[in-house]
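Revision sheet: structure tokens.
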Amino acid sequence: MTSQVYTAWEKDTTAGKHSVMMAFDNATVTDLNARAQAYRLGTGALAEGPAAALRDGLAARPGDVVVTRKNDRRLSVNHGKDFVKNNDVWTVTEVHPGGAMTVRHQDHNGTITLPAAYVRENAMLGYAATIHRTQGMTCDTTHAMIGSGLSRALAYVAASRCRESNHLYGVLADGETLTDVLRTVAGNHDGNLTAHEQIDAARAVARSLPEMVSVYQDIDDQANELRMANTARTILGERTAEPFIASDAWGAVATHLRHAESEGFSLTNLLTDATGTPFEESQDPGAVLAWRVEDKLDYWRTRAQTPARRPLEAVSDQALARLARRATADLMRARADTGTNPATAPDRRDLARNWLKETKETPWQYLPDPRLRHHRDPGPVHPAGNRGRTEIPRYRHAQILRADRQGAPGRR
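Predicted:
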């Protein structure tokens, strides 16, 4: 692409036009400057003789176009009305021994002799320049190389420097088209924003829906980890739960526990079963616990989805409802008897352990009497599950007992 830019510049220069080549990096600018100087040497536009070393590694001869790159108010020019500034363009009229050179300003024609030290550190050939340095410049024609990394502000600079015509040359990456380059450049906003623009941009990002969803998800995950950590401490005990909570894999454990909770399974049973086997040889107990919880949860899901034969499927729903009412009444009477004679009351912990043992492998069961469901959703109840469990208020117990005593169906 540099060859095409240089060829177009040479054609315009031969026609007597003031043409400038542009690129987006200094290495390409130096290459274009070297080609342009070689062309002018070949045409005799540059005088043979001593040359002054420049900042870009090239050398300037009488007749060359150079640009200064540093402001220096001590180097006054044009009878003190001006001084040597950054991006001033000059024509070399004489090169002195030691590297100093006399130059003439291309705008007001003021002349000055630049010291050798300034020339070596702050002067470059001026046939080509970076797009950024051409801001404020006006010429006849321009030939600018652009790529997808260029901002649209600099692309505007490259396309608005001349009086006659601007030419843009797209530098394409592998698999890229010119349309892709132009579309990317048009979307590249200038990073040098004002304070108000930065505030507006930050506010727009903070209020964008994807950003808010991401923030909410992160906060929700952290809250779930804290909640499940407290649940684990309650179920397993502080000392047992802490090694799991401190593990990097606790986030996975908390996620599995949330899924189990939302599907109606018992977190108590799940954690108790998953921690039943010792973790003595485990380097990361949390990772092992995450695997065990996930594996146990998959097993429970399979059991829940597998159709099983109901032991009481031959009994009608009406008969089951009567049995449920009778069992509830018997339970209430047993509780009343226990209150009057505590010595005959069975150990509640033994009852709980036996009940868990009997129902451990049952995915879930249903409450038969809709009157016992209170205001909760009548969903499935896991063996030791949370979903659908109902605390029956005292007035409901009284209503059920009253109905049975007044002659419930199937009862005398």
